[in-house]
Structure formats: structure tokens, C-alpha cells
């Protein structure tokens, strides 16, 4: 029978098993937390402001050859769909028409609901006859408000490209495209080669231009998503968080002579720094785990490792760490990290580790 106050081998191993179960649970919880915390990409705005610049001419009241709907109806459907997908990243927005030129929504903080209301206010049953398309004049009248748009700015032209009054629309568009940090994007509702050629020439004025076919956007959600992403935002991986403090501090140079739990001078200097780190992270409890090499019996090594852990705890308490934050346990020779077949490996296995809990 063991002497009074001694722990039997069975009790020691039962205590050892309980700590192993606790550590396994902690490891599982940390792994699960890491998996659950996998962050999504962060959306970063490409632009600060945008403006839909909508062709409101007579030809837009004609049916689109492919879609069988009036082109102005298609334009409204497209703007509604895009508006629903714009991420809330603090944009300023506006909505203007040309042929005739009008301000439907003045440049200001973009609001999804307000913008939808503005889109709906556009008429789609206007007369065709006598409603010509002075696209060049539209760009000329757009220049002053585009100049005042917050940079970077996107002008999103929605048109069939028809222009039958005034100067060359491409020449007029150059003045807008030449503004610093302004990009003209094109959504084409053209159903003639001439109209498409005009829109292609306008899109080429801006190296950053995104030029798309309106029918493709309306019938393909992936294409719509891509357009919104290409014009409005980038996706970036989130900035790496500061590396968390290591959960296990291995006191690599806090080793012990064979059959000893006494700390030497080099060990105390290391433990002084460890105490500083622990005190800088209040509120966390720690397990002070002692370990041995494989020389000696299992029962003896359990006791020796426990004594080593308590020796480290006593020193940390003297350095100002609250004793209530420190639990000790001896693992004996059960968790070697180094080769017990060499003297150097055995020396390194006679160690203490601190685990935050």
C-alpha cells in the first residue's frame, strides 16, 4: 500500500486519463472553431459614384428585335436588376436621360429603394414620332454634372446607339471620357450594325470600359452578376488578423537534470519572461504540464513530472502570476517530443509546457 498522502499508480493514471480527455476536447473545440471561422471575401468598391445615362429617344420606344419588348422597357428592367445587386458600399448615384435630357435622380447618396422609385418614374409609353436622338447633345449636357461626380466615377450608358441629330456622338463623348477617373460603361440595346458601331466606338474611349449586350444581361444572371462586379466592386481576401498568441508555450530551455525538479539560473530567466507574457494576457487560465524522459518507472516519472510542473508554478506565482490561474499536471514519459534513444533527446524531453485554456 502507498504511504499516507501518496498517490497510487491507479489514481495517478486515472488523473492522467482525465487530463488527456480535457486536452482532446480543447483541441477539438479549437479545430472546430477554426473551421467555422473561415471568412468570406470582402467586397471593396471600385468606384465612389455612378450615373445611369439612359437613351430616352423615339427609337427606344420601338421593340427590341430579339427580346420583343420596347427598348425603354428593357432598359428599365436592366436598371432594376442591377440596382438590386449593387452592394451597399457607400456609393453616390444618379440617373439622367438624354433625348430629351433630364435629371431623374440627382447625384447623391445611393439608396436602393429611392433608386428603384426613380427607375419606375421613367415613362415607357411615349410617342415615337418627332422624338429624334441628339446623343451628342446629351453628352454635352452631361459634362457639367459628371465633372462634379465623386471620383472614381462610372457613367453607365444604356442606348441602342441610334443618333440622327447633331454632331458625331463619339466626338462629344470624348470630353466626358477625358475627365480624370471617369469611365464610360456601355449596355447595348442596339439592333442595327450602325448603332452597335457607335456604342463600340464610345466604349473604346475608356480603357476601363465594360461593354455588354443588354439582352445577354437580362437573360443570364451570371452575366448580370459579372457586370455588377466588374463595374462596382472587387473581391479581396480579408486582411489577416494579428496572429493569436501561441496556445502552447514550450519552455524549451527549462529542462531538468535527471531525477531533479530544481530550476537552474537559465530556466529562471526564461520563466521571468514567460510570467510577463502571462500577466499581459489576463483572464486566461493555464495548465502547467511537466514531462520526463523514459528513464525510470512510469509511476516514478509521473511523480517527477508533477514535481517539475509545481516547481514552475511556484516560480511564476513569485513573479506575480495569480496561483488561481495555474493548474499543474505531470504527464510523466507519456508525451515525448524528442528521441529518447539519445541523451540529447532525453534531456529535451525533461521539459515543462504552458497551455492556455
Automatic annotation (TrEMBL):
Q: Where in the cell is it found?
A: Cell outer membrane
**Which SUPFAM superfamilies does the protein's record reference?**
OmpA-like, vWA-like
InterPro entries according to UniProt: Bact_OuterMem_StrucFunc, OMP_bac, OmpA-like, OmpA-like_sf, vWFA_dom_sf
Gene Ontology annotations for the cellular component aspect, listed alphabetically? cell outer membrane
Top-level taxon: Bacteria
Leader peptide range in chain numbering = 1-36
Please report the name of this protein according to its UniProt entry.
OmpA family protein
Q: What is the lineage of its organism?
A: Bacteria, Pseudomonadati, Thermodesulfobacteriota, Desulfovibrionia, Desulfovibrionales
Describe the location of the OmpA-like domain by residue ranges: 244-357
Keyword tags: Cell outer membrane, Membrane, Signal
Q: Name one Pfam family in it.
A: OmpA
Species source reads: Nitratidesulfovibrio vulgaris (strain ATCC 29579 / DSM 644 / CCUG 34227 / NCIMB 8303 / VKM B-1760 / Hildenborough) (Desulfovibrio vulgaris)
Which residues lie within the region annotated Disordered?
334-357
Amino acid at each position: 500500500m502507498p504511504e499516507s498522502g501518496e498517490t497510487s499508480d491507479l489514481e495517478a493514471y486515472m488523473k492522467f486519463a482525465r487530463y488527456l480527455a480535457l486536452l482532446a476536447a480543447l483541441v477539438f473545440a479549437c479545430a472546430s472553431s477554426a473551421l467555422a471561422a473561415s471568412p468570406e471575401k470582402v467586397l471593396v468598391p471600385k468606384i465612389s459614384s455612378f450615373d445611369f445615362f439612359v437613351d430616352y429617344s423615339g427609337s427606344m420606344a420601338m421593340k427590341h428585335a430579339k427580346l420583343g419588348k420596347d427598348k425603354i422597357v428593357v432598359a428599365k428592367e436592366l436598371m432594376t436588376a442591377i440596382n438590386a445587386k449593387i452592394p451597399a458600399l457607400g456609393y453616390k448615384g444618379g440617373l439622367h436621360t438624354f433625348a430629351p435630357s433630364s435629371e431623374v435622380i440627382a447625384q447623391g447618396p445611393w439608396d436602393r429603394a429611392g433608386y428603384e422609385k426613380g427607375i419606375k418614374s421613367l415613362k415607357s409609353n411615349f410617342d415615337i414620332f418627332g422624338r429624334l436622338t441628339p446623343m451628342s447633345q446629351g453628352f454635352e449636357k452631361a459634362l457639367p454634372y459628371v465633372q462634379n461626380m465623386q471620383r472614381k466615377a462610372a457613367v453607365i450608358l444604356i442606348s441602342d446607339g441610334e443618333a440622327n441629330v447633331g454632331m458625331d456622338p463619339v466626338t462629344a463623348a470624348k470630353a466626358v471620357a477625358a475627365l480624370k477617373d471617369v469611365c464610360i460603361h456601355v449596355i447595348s440595346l442596339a439592333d442595327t450594325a450602325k448603332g452597335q458601331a457607335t456604342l463600340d466606338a464610345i466604349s473604346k474611349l475608356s480603357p476601363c470600359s465594360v461593354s455588354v449586350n443588354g439582352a445577354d444581361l437580362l437573360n443570364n444572371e451570371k452575366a448580370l452578376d459579372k457586370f455588377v462586379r466588374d463595374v462596382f466592386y472587387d473581391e479581396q481576401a480579408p486582411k489577416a488578423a494579428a496572429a493569436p498568441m501561441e496556445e502552447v508555450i514550450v519552455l524549451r530551455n527549462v529542462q531538468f537534470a535527471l531525477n531533479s525538479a530544481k530550476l537552474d539560473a537559465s530556466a529562471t530567466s526564461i520563466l521571468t519572461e514567460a510570467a510577463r507574457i502571462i500577466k499581459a494576457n489576463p483572464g486566461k487560465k493555464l495548465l502547467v504540464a511537466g514531462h520526463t524522459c523514459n528513464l525510470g518507472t512510469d509511476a516514478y516519472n509521473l511523480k517527477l513530472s508533477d514535481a517539475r510542473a509545481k516547481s514552475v508554478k511556484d516560480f511564476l506565482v513569485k513573479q506575480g502570476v495569480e496561483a488561481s490561474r495555474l493548474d499543474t499536471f505531470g504527464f510523466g514519459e507519456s508525451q515525448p517530443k524528442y528521441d529518447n534513444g539519445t541523451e540529447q533527446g532525453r534531456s529535451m524531453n525533461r521539459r515543462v509546457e504552458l497551455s492556455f485554456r
